[in-house]
Amino acid sequence: MQPITLHSFDGGIHPQENKHQSTQRAIVALPLPAQLIVPVGQHIGAPADVIVSIGDTVLKGQDIAHPKGFVSAAIHAPTSGKVVAIEQRELPHSSGLEGTCVIIDSDGQDQWLEEIANGSQGINDYLDADNDVLIKRIRDCGITGMGGAGFPTSVKMAVKGKQIDTLVINAAECEPYITSDDMLMRERALEAIRGIQILMKLTAADNCLIGIEDNKPEAIKAMEDALHKVHGEHHITVVTIPTKYPSGGEKQLIKILTGKEVPSGGIPASIGIVCQNIGTCEAIYRAIAEGKPLISRITTITGDSVEQPQNVEVLIGTPVKHLLEFAGFKQEKSLFQKLLGTESKPRIIMGGPMMGFTLSNDELPILKSSNCVLAPSQKELPANDIASECIRCGLCTEACPADLLPQQLYWFSKAGELDKAEQHNIADCIECGACSYVCPSQIPLVQYYRHTKGSIKTERAAQDKSNRSKVRFEARQDRLDREAAEKEAKRQARAAAAEKAQAAKKAAAAKAAEEAAKNGDSPATEASAKPEPVDLEKLQKQLSAAQAGLKKSMDKVAEIKAGEAEAAESEKLEVFEKAVATRRDKVKLLAQQVAEAKKAMPPVKKEVSREDIEKKLRAQQDRIEKSQQRLQLAQEQGLDTLPALQKGLDKQMQKLKELEADLAQFDKAGV
């Protein structure tokens, strides 16, 4: 293979490394905790669906939550025991959010599932196995990225239809204090290399580049030795890169090793590259060759507040407190005050000093992506002073490895101008903390960016929900309009049939009268004929319904003509105008039938009381008020219905005067 030409990325810093403290001891297994808190959402994507119940007994490696959807990951029991609770618990996250957790009380036996314990789940000839089988095993074993992001590995390996040229293995581990990947490569290099071979098979990459910073000579030698053992040096290369923070960023490492840049908003696969963390490679080998799910990981426990800084293999879900006690945590050394006058409390950081975050308490669990627990002393890592005003020095811009404008993003984030922050590519911020590190005003820039990213995500989710609601509303309106049109068509068909039947009946009656006259019979007179009974109340209800439908159609036409309707509705103007004409004919017909029915009915004299007049007067006043509101709205919008509304209001005013005159008659009579 040709020699690798290294490149560089803009920005970056050189903070004090502080790595030697935790590399003096070999990796040890952490003693079994009494209780494990296992979140079902430890990865990017949808949280897994819990498949166990409270009171269930589980074995080590048993499924307790299945992946939900494509971008998700399975969750397994880290040890044997009993499920005592399934509830919402605070998660180790910078925002302090909560999530569903399965609480397991350990039985102390640490007993594996039988099929895992006897090795029957392992795939011996994995380099000859079908890719779909291997990807399914990776998904079933819950493997996710162990470098921090937690992206489901099975999704990242689904590269069908994409030409992958290079597999990049991120073993840079650039953040200060963290040495979990360093120690893994020193002690488990062969397993990591075999995991890389599996990834090369899945991606069909031509070559693989393992990027390791030059401050890890023991890890570099161990990886090279393991590479020769499997005779993979012809396609896999261990590349030593200069120590510079954040060279372990995915885009930055790709730039160093290949000279290629991942486009803004894009992914490495778009330029023919797949990137995986070295810890993920070792977990993939365990899952494929041994059938073991991801239930533990190597985590660095370090800082001046612990007596024995080291790397331990810890079960997922182990409370941080258990890890601290094992390393000899001295709480008095970690006490600090955020502000003058506030109560001192121990500071525990999950992750490194650059990208990590302070935990609210030590009962929070270790996750699949938890590579470090840092317990610094106040002297070792002093708390920031109160932030001062930005002096526009530009140091943050020089330090940014993503070629962003941190100062501008700060102003936009502070002002809540989310659209401008998006336009300045805030999504490309890797939250490395380099800008905050060099800021002389001690402004917590990364915290502003994280908050803005969360706000953008929330706003986008709300907009998506609104769009979905709009689609549902429009579909419902289309359905209602369609049903109304169908109902109207049926009604017209019935009216036509009734009219035809009535005409036929009249014709038959006329013919019968003519026949009777010819035969000398006395024709039936109108007085002797019995008129058909008419249901006036039913006709009036039909008239009211028809008038309401007509008004609705007229309002819709007016709204479209005023330009206030949606584009989809504007295209239906002709349909609504036809509906107006049809409903107007229906109203006229029903009004005529009501009038005829009223004429045919014998007059009913009803004694009208003063209370009746007053009631009618109040109702008429309410109608006038509503009509005036509709008229005012029509005037403001310049609608075509303005003359009709004015005419209707005049009639109502005349009716009001008549009622007032009737009431005056009662006053004169002294009633």
Name of the CATH first level of the largest domain: Alpha Beta
The total number of structural domains is 4
The main pleated sheet reads as: 6 strands, mixed
The number of distinct helices, counting runs of at least 4 residues, comes to 19
Considering the chains and any ligands shown, give keywords for the structure.
single chain; 671 residues; alpha/beta; Rossmann fold; 4 domains; six-stranded mixed sheet; four-stranded antiparallel sheet; 19 strands; 12% strand; elongated
Short summary:
With 671 residues, the chain is α/β, with parallel strands linked by helices. It has helices at residues 114-117, 131-140, 153-156, 180-203, 217-229, 250-258, 278-290, 320-326, 331-334, 395-399, 406-415, 418-423, 434-438, 445-518, 536-561, 567-570, 573-600, 610-637, 642-669; strands at 28-29, 35-39, 49-50, 57-58, 63-66, 75-76, 81-90, 98-106, 166-170, 207-213, 236-241, 273-277, 296-302, 310-315, 335-336, 345-346, 349-350, 357-358, 372-374.
